[in-house]
Specification:
seven-stranded antiparallel β-sheet; elongated; 2 domains; 33% strand; alpha+beta; six-stranded mixed β-sheet; 10 helices; Alpha-1-antitrypsin, domain 1; Antithrombin, Chain I, domain 2; 390 residues
Length: 390
């Protein structure tokens, strides 16, 4: 069995998720805390000085340690059944070989328009011979889109933010999941049931139903959590979280990754679960949230990424696109996080059965097989539409 994440890795990613959720609001959304953490940690491995201190405050790690944890987390994700994970860096400016060596599982390539190398001052190019533009022919937008489409199984077909020629370096993390439920919802039991959205409006939505064992249901500080296991020895865990009426995602979603010590078991023998069939898709400009998370220098020309490149880079955009689909047979999800950098700038008896109805706003969280790393976290406050709608 593949070792799980260390306490540090899980705590750092959970902490980022908990701090990020309030920035995402109370409307429908889905995000990938792991995807954002891995992308920013890879960048942080090349940060120095006060820029590194800021990133360490958010991520819990920077420099060489960040590079090592990026590798460990990436391999943990890749070992989860049904999960594909990949990270790539494409640049038109020199990238330090020490940065590349620190991220052995990350692919490196060249952006079309690599003559920017020759626009750098001689004193920069002469400062070190530990730089490289990579050994792969330059790629254009359509080639990067093709890489992303393959990495996510077509769920995200292109870069969340198209290239316009201003970017000097693009780091992309892609994460995809396709998994079948260990026990599928019987399709013939799916029927319209009332769902009351976050504005108090009620309408019928396609709702799946299934009786599940009591050990798949627990509560954390008033939040009911239901876990639906997926097929596979090292399968991802999919959890749905239902808070008290009026509770928002920042209060509800963290319950899905709370450890066993925080859980109260269901006081019943089984539960009758009703769950809407739904899709969530979101594109998030996460750079707009970073200031609220304590990051400012990395976004300005004063940034110090001298452990990445001698070209004087700073982060100009952080964009994430995520999709999660839940249906009778299983769950599919994908996330692409894009960081763009630019220069300067028991015995038979009568059962007690609890009814657990997700008939109002609720959350969904997909973790790795340990249940500790939040791969995807979503909030559904609107009434899911009919089959095929978003």
């Amino acid at each position: 069995m593949t070792p799980g994440p260390t306490a540090f890795e899980a705590d750092a990613i959970q902490a980022l998720a908990a701090r990020w959720l309030p920035c995402l609001g109370d409307d429908d959304f889905v995000c990938s805390p792991v995807g954002l953490w891995v992308a920013l940690a890879a960048v942080a491995s090349g940060a120095r000085g006060r820029t590194a201190e800021e990133l360490r405050g958010l991520l819990g790690v920077d420099g060489e340690a960040a590079a090592g944890v990026v590798t460990v987390v990436g391999r943990r994700l890749a070992a989860t059944d049904g999960v594909a994970a990949a990270t790539g860096v494409w640049s038109r400016v020199p990238v330090l070989d020490v940065f590349r060596r620190g991220l052995p599982d990350v692919g490196f390539g060249v952006l079309r328009g690599a003559p920017a190398w020759f626009e750098l001052p001689d004193e920069v190019l002469g400062a070190t011979d530990d730089v490289s533009l990579g050994e792969i022919p330059p790629v254009a937008q359509d080639e990067l889109d093709d890489w992303i489409g393959r990495a996510t199984g077509g769920r995200v077909p292109r870069l969340p933010l198209g290239l316009d020629g201003s970017e000097d370096l693009v780091l992309v993390n892609a994460l995809a999941l396709k998994a079948s439920w260990l026990t599928a919802f019987p399709a013939h039991l799916t029927r319209d049931e009332p769902f009351t959205d976050g504005h108090g409006h009620t309408r019928p939505v396609p709702t799946m139903r299934q009786r599940i064992p009591a050990d798949r249901v627990w509560s954390v500080d008033g939040v009911t959590v239901v876990e639906l296991p997926c097929a596979g020895d090292e399968a991802a865990r999919v959890r749905f979280a239902l808070g008290r009426p009026g509770a928002g995602p920042a209060d509800v979603l963290p319950a899905a990754w709370a450890g066993p010590a925080a859980r109260t078991p269901l006081a019943a023998d089984a539960a009758d679960l009703t769950l809407p069939r739904f899709t969530l898709r979101t594109k998030t400009e996460a750079d707009a949230h970073l200031a609220a998370l304590g990051i400012s220098r990395a976004l300005r020309p004063v940034a110090d990424f001298s452990g990445l490149s001698p070209a004087g880079l700073h982060v100009s955009k952080v964009v994430q696109e995520v999709i999660v689909e839940v249906a009778e047979e299983g769950v599919e999800a994908a996330a692409v996080t894009q960081v763009t950098m630019t220069r300067g700038a028991a015995p038979a008896r009568h059962e007690v059965v609890e009814r657990v109805a997700f008939d109002r706003p609720f959350g969904v969280v997909v973790t790795d097989t340990t249940g500790e790393l939040p791969l995807f976290a979503g909030w559904r406050q609107s009434a899911p539409a009919g089959a095929g709608a978003r």
